[in-house]
């Protein structure tokens, strides 16, 4: 080996050592910097001639396990999703209150029952009457407050989506910008490695918001997709758009039909045109945004439905009266059937007809629902809570003649005959002599609207001053949001004696307990079906029980959901933190290791310098000899 080759080799050693020293310095300086990945010099052997080899620097290595990094991002999405749900469900439990404490729906309902027991015992007591009305008002207020709390949580979820979209869009822009910078540099030097650290931080930030999949190409650029396959960013970034609606109401619901949706809609707009609804396509399945969407459009909507169903069942239990049909007169023979008085029928009220198809020997339970808005027709069988009935919606806005015509058209195949012999009477008959059908029973359920109708039933609670009848309109179900609008009938507030007096002609006798007993029995012992949309029971077997049973089911379900969400969140945090510790052990800076490496570099630098010094002495000797 010539002296020049030896000198060149020694100089390459010094340059390599200097570069390594620079990275050690960078590692130590950034030991506590979030997202910083430990870096080392990539050294390769280079030829310097026939004898020996020099050392060459071939870029910078980032000490990173990409498989672990991918796992961390997946678990980060899950942990963020679980954390948001746990926080919201904990707050929802706070809205409902703990069962053992006062200020809950159950507590207010129990106080109402206690007041009704006092009224049933002493119906002539003015204080008992006032106490019952006041307890009912407190219960209505508790339902109003609970509704406000649930809708406030939905508004917070909407705001959370908006904030997450802003953060996500910034991350997407930064990832695209860094992708282009890396493409321009074409190599992995120290500055490029620093850019990769920055890009990873933005991807990590994005992974907490959306479930993602990252693909890296041979130029070290990344393309980020959702796990459902929607491309978010490459060298160009897509843009998430969201139109927050601010204040939430129970009627503010998401719909796949843009004309019916009245909450913020989340879309993605692609760089070269076109957009995509991320909600209706279920394109985001984890991360904070998925949790906010589920809470706003599902979990909290179900919670609202639960208290709306309670308010509706309680109102209907006191105001709905079912009257059996009267056998049709003999003059209609050989046909047979019933006459029904529809005088008190309100929109949403139901006519019940049981008939047998003698051809197939099948018994049918028919529920004819009054609607005054034909745009909602036809109704599905889920329009009532009876899993065994067949629902038929009839438009009553055109009068009895129109009603009869609609019924005869709809039920001609069932061999039933309808007519309006007089006034508000609806007559339903079988087919007579052919005997293909038999009408077995008929009744009508109407909503009593007067406090002194002569019936024990009364509109104790109202919906913004109107009786609750279960109306179905183009704007949705009357039940939706009822818990936020329910109040005690203002006529009762003005005259609590109507809790006992149900007739003025003749006047209900003093001390009559008929109405008081009816109200108490309905609310304490009456059993009702509840909508499967509450998450309690199913369409085929809806939950059936007393109002007390239903309230306890609500509180129990919410408590269990909050506990399960907290446990899931804690478990996700453990998994995520364990993975992060593994990543840190590989990618993080260990000061002790860096100091040991520094000593080795110092020795290497000294050795290379000593080689150069010896070569210099050899050159000096050679020159002097010449």
Describe the structure in your own words.
The protein has helices at residues 3-29, 66-96, 105-121, 126-185, 190-209, 287-319, 400-410, 482-485, 490-494, 514-524, 547-587, 591-625; strands at 39-47, 53-62, 212-216, 222-226, 231-233, 239-242, 266-269, 275-277, 320-324, 326-327, 337-341, 350-357, 362-371, 390-395, 417-419, 425-429, 437-447, 461-463, 472-473, 476-477, 486-488, 528-529, 544-545. It is of the alpha+beta class. The strands form eight sheets. It has a five-stranded mixed sheet with strand order 9-17-12-13-14. It has a four-stranded antiparallel sheet with strand order 10-11-16-15. It has a three-stranded antiparallel sheet with strand order 3-4-5. Strand 19 and strand 20 form a beta hairpin. Helix 2 runs parallel beside helix 6, helix 3 packs antiparallel against helix 10 and helix 6 runs antiparallel to helix 11 (547-587). The model has no long low-confidence stretch (mean pLDDT 90).
Distance between the termini: 20 Å
Number of strands: 23
The pLDDT mean sits at 90
The largest sheet has its strands arranged as 9-17-12-13-14
Number of helices: 12
Please give the structural blueprint:
Layout: H1 3-29, E1 39-47, E2 53-62, H2 66-96, H3 105-121, H4 126-185, H5 190-209, E3 212-216, E4 222-226, E5 231-233, E6 239-242, E7 266-269, E8 275-277, H6 287-319, E9 320-324, E10 326-327, E11 337-341, E12 350-357, E13 362-371, E14 390-395, H7 400-410, E15 417-419, E16 425-429, E17 437-447, E18 461-463, E19 472-473, E20 476-477, H8 482-485, E21 486-488, H9 490-494, H10 514-524, E22 528-529, E23 544-545, H11 547-587, H12 591-625
Parallel strand pairs: 13-14
Antiparallel strand pairs: 1-2, 3-4, 4-5, 6-7, 7-8, 9-17, 10-11, 11-16, 12-13, 12-17, 15-16, 18-21, 19-20, 22-23
Helix pairs in contact: 1-12, 2-4, 2-5, 2-6, 2-11, 3-4, 3-10, 3-11, 4-5, 4-6, 6-11
